[in-house]
Amino acid sequence: KRKTQPTTEALVTQILEGNITALSRAITLVESSNPSHLNQANAIIKACLPHANASVRIGITGVPGVGKSTFIEAFGIHLTSEGKKVAVLAVDPSSTLSRGSILGDKTRMDDLVKNENAFIRPSPSGTSLGGVARKTRESIILCEAAGFDTIVIETVGVGQSETAVHSMVDFFLLLKLSGAGDELQGIKRGIIEMADAIAINKADGENLKAAKLAKVEFNRALHLYPEKDSQWQPKVILCSALQREGIADIWEMISSYLEHTKKTGFFERHRKLQNKFWLLQTIEDRLKSDFFNRQKIKTELKVQLQLIEDGK
Amino acid sequence: KRKTQPTTEALVTQILEGNITALSRAITLVESSNPSHLNQANAIIKACLPHANASVRIGITGVPGVGKSTFIEAFGIHLTSEGKKVAVLAVDPSSTLSRGSILGDKTRMDDLVKNENAFIRPSPSGTSLGGVARKTRESIILCEAAGFDTIVIETVGVGQSETAVHSMVDFFLLLKLSGAGDELQGIKRGIIEMADAIAINKADGENLKAAKLAKVEFNRALHLYPEKDSQWQPKVILCSALQREGIADIWEMISSYLEHTKKTGFFERHRKLQNKFWLLQTIEDRLKSDFFNRQKIKTELKVQLQLIEDGK
Q1: CA-based nearest distance B101→chain A, Å
Q2: Of the partner residues B186, B192, B291, the one whose CB lies closest to the CB of residue A287
Q3: pLDDT tens across A57-68, in order?
Q4: In whole angstroms, what is the distance from residue A53 CA to residue B35 CA?
Q5: Interface touch B276/A220, C-beta < 8 Å
């Protein structure tokens, strides 16, 4: 009943040729919780690593309702029209239950899905953010080896996941709404500080005036923060993903960020720091999961936490 | 040559009687890196725990030069004049080298040092923030058992240490300067979001005008953040620690915060969350230090990190 799995060598060769089917299969192996897939997944990643890295990695976050899917579709279409190959991945640990609260429904990106220079993949599932993030990082490597030069990582701005995404991208974009007052609802603390830019979406029609006011306010807020290590002053840009307005401006801004950080050496330095961080993170995650998954530890910890809850 | 150490029982009895010498000795045991002191320290903490917790824990941070020592002295004197017993501790992992960049020089708090209702202790030393923070947390318990009802924890706003302090206090106060522009220099990202209040210090004489402007600006910035779990809207207050102005207002504000959070149940809930966090943190710290201190791991990790640095 089960199809014969292609060999590791065959998969790697096909990935390097840009074969999407092979890329999807390899990502499925990376995402698998089946221990027998682990070795093959690691072998593929190892073979792909020398061909990775030559890309721009862009993180995009924003609360539900901000128009992330519409934005990413418009952004992806603009990029492919400029000759880029765009991979869209997602990090959403909550999707384990809901099975894909973001990017799960690819039909929301109708035009981009059909585009042969775009690859869209929903969030891997997993019980821990650490696991989901690791799988996504490995998928980035595979996408890059398959020739994708622009990697977009989507996440929801409500949990810890944007910290993980922030630590795997070169540029971090926060999407906001222009609606009166509610542009500030539900953002996780610290996200504004992580942002390299804030794009105020749905800045069209009757929203335009409020969006312009929000732009002034955010610009003021951003200036309250100390200078970033990248020496980049975060920008605020208006856009309407639905009308496909402002999208080119955002890409132009990201391009000038890349030019700036490549010139100063920050880009390269930052990637190395991220790689070191992830090496340590992977070791720590493994160390912790090995420990906390022991039945004896689980039982005892539960007892101790209950004692605290009971105030003892 | 060495004096006989008092027994654990004797130390505990004296601590519970409010004996400062015994308290200092016990803290020295907690801070000791001598493994033979570990058991006694743990026994003392265990015996003191049931007598701890009945206090207010206030974190105070701010960059060097903001006037922390002067502020804490004025604040401590105000509190003791209201009948409080005040313990001042510090968290400063960098002090391992400098031996006390904060609170090391007690003479900076001349009046408070002489006050019999105040206890001042410089930062424990230690190579890791985790270790320093754990020692401080244990010292809090000892101080509370000795009858101190107001614990002030000082830290410098330039590293990771305020996150640690934030997670051990009920109220987190950020001290700022009013000077044009430089009130925003050198703050670590995220600190503003942690603050329950910002006190703009040195708001006196020629600085007063700038301080008032800064107050408006910070109030605006604070309103950009989502509501805190405590449902407390962070305040901005002007003060002059040197002139001892605004200090009573700050204590009044903290009192109303306490009243609010005790009424809503947040105070109790938050402390339990902190206790659970610290249980897990202590386990993780131990797990990691056991692992990363193995010589074989150290050597191999160094090799791997160098490979990343070399871009391989």
Answers
A1: 23
A2: B291
A3: 999 998 777 888
A4: 47
A5: no
